[in-house]
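---------- Forwarded message ----------

FYI, see the tRNA methylthiotransferase YqeV record below. Original note from H. follows.
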Amino acid sequence: MQVPKVAFINLGCRVNRVETDVIASELERAGCKVVNQNEADAIVINTCAVTGEAEAKTRKIVRRAANLANVPFVVATGCVANLHADELSSIADNVLVERNKARVCQRVLGEFGCIAGSVDDDGDLVQTPTPTGRMRPGIKVQDGCNNRCSFCIVWKARGPARSVSCESVLASVRSSIAHGAREVVLTGINLGDFREIYHGSRVRLPDLLQLILDETPVERVRLSSIEPPDVTDELLRVMAQSQGRIAPFLHICLQSGCEATLKRMRRNYTASSYAAAVENARAYMPSIALGTDLIVGFPGETDDEFQTSYDFCERIGFAKMHVFRYSKREGTPAASAPNQVDPHVMASRSKLMRELASRMRYEQAKKLIGQTDRVLVQGVGYGVTSGLFDVHLDKQTCLDTLVDVRILSVMKDASLLVERL
């Protein structure tokens, strides 16, 4: 039987990327081959509904994939599939919607008319830690969210918070290592909400990190996004005492540096408590790199509130800041809130924030000159530091290795020039 060829399109968050990798691994083990869209017999699209723009992009991409001449069918899964299954199905006759991601593999195989292991592997697969080629595989440890932020629909698409068993997490880490991974990234919709029982003991995120360090030989673990209240002394202590096995990097969600805006967003922290969490993190790890997400133009945001948020971010000094213009999401309280911000005003504020983000990243990178770090080689002549700064390397350096370097200088784009140690 001819080997079925499947392509993957991932939209949205880190958790989506991890789930896409899992589906790709299942289909690869079943005998399918992961290819690009132009070669594929089928395309699996993991959709995103975090904003109205994300939904519109999802529909556009599904439509485009369905219209490719070489694709007999498209399988759409993910958040938009959960919220608007009928709408996606109506795009084209060859679009199938599978709300349950755990069933995507069997759905694809069923459409091919085969079962797992019934096709031959042609042996032409690229050997990387993930079938989709990412060198830092994600490990999903948590899903869902119990928060009800006024701009967010994800809690409805994903459901309530729930955690993956410690046994499954450890097994996933070991499997990633067996496939060549040197670094893994723990992900979740609300990562800090992890809570499980292991051998009769309650396990929270700091305990899970220690468990991974104690029971697996993984060389480096990284955390994805985390909420400010979850940056606890227990977490920081485990990170600081890990001797670099936990990357000294925290992506702490902010959304706004203005107290009034945070209150309208219904976030579960204040700007002052956020600043205290950052101060504590730097007390434990002075060289820690900090990332964040920021929304500009949230309903009711005045010029003064924007400036307050801008000044707050500048004081913090982020190494990586993702800036988003507020996008109205139907079905959320913020969508019908008064004083919606003019799109042109949002664009202007976004430009200012992005310029600040670039300047802060460059300033944080300059502080690294003369320091040593461990770089994960992710591509030919390219790698990332423990703090997620891009690094230029000798093109002969082996992929998916951790190499020790000294940082010599910083390029204009905040990438680093280094020497091997």
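H. also flagged this: The chain has 13 helices and 19 strands.
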